[in-house]
Amino acid sequence: MATFTVPTRDQVSEKNQAIFDNLNKALGFVPNLYATIALSKNGLERFLAYQNAKTSLTNKEKEAVNLIVSQINGCIYCQSAHLVLGKMNGFNDDQLSEIRHGKSSDGKLNSLVALAADITKNRGNANDYNVDAFFVQGYTQENLVDLILQISDKTAMNYLHNLTKVPVDFPLAPAI
Q1: CA separation (Å) from 140 to 38, 54, 56, 137, 152?
Q2: Which of 14, 36, 23 is nearest to 161 (CA)?
Q3: Would you call 22 helix, strand, or coil by DSSP?
Q4: Helix, strand, coil proportions of the chain in percent (round to 5)?
Q5: Inter-residue contact 75 to 166 (CB < 8 Å)
Q6: What is the pLDDT of residues 54-97, one digit of tens each?
Q7: Measured between alpha carbons, how far is 117 from 115 in angstroms, rounded to an integer?
Q8: What is the pLDDT of residues 33-65, one digit of tens each?
């Protein structure tokens, strides 16, 4: 199997070097998975624009989706990153553990996590119960579209790490 090396700033295009500089200013480092996307001359800019686009989901909801999708897809990198980001967005350890197990004690968030898990496991299909529960909790058709887009964002990152296996540069998520 091919070995993927995380590129340094000097090994990426000028456009990606500027993005590395911005990430360093904002985060204090360039996450290895983002650096790996920079192997594509246009990939990092394209992905960050997609990832940072406006959505009807809150940051907390996005983190819940990111975490359950990463759990289902078996991506240790993204599980690790979204445990950190989940805490930054107001979740505690117990809530994050619940989400990793596909549920939440908050009814509305539970419907979101359950539907995201169902869609991910079933490659875009979901059972009527989970779809109905999502709408009963007050989510809209706009939210459903944004949920699917969020799942696609995270699935792309999960697949990238699962294939490249670049080093995890966040505190490692404990096994569950």
Answers
A1: 35, 16, 9, 9, 19
A2: 36
A3: helix
A4: 65, 0, 35
A5: no
A6: 999 999 999 999 999 999 999 999 999 999 999 999 999 999 99
A7: 5
A8: 999 999 999 999 999 999 999 999 999 999 999
Backbone angles phi, psi at 93, to 5 degrees: -60, -40
**Structural contact between residues 24 and 30, judged by C-beta atoms closer than 8 angstroms:** yes
CB 66, CB 85: distance < 8 Å: yes
Are the C-beta atoms of residues 74 and 49 closer than 8 Å to each other?
Answer: no
- Which domains occur in the chain, in start order? 9-51 (no CATH), 59-164 (1.20.1290.10)
| Chain centroid, CA 62 distance in Å | 8
Amino acid (one-letter) located at 134:
F
| Cα distance between residue 166 and residue 160, in whole Å | 9
Query: Which helix or strand (DSSP H or E) is residue 176 part of?
Result: none
Q: How far apart are the first and last CA of the chain?
A: 28
Nearest residue to 70 via CA among 82, 61, 58: 82
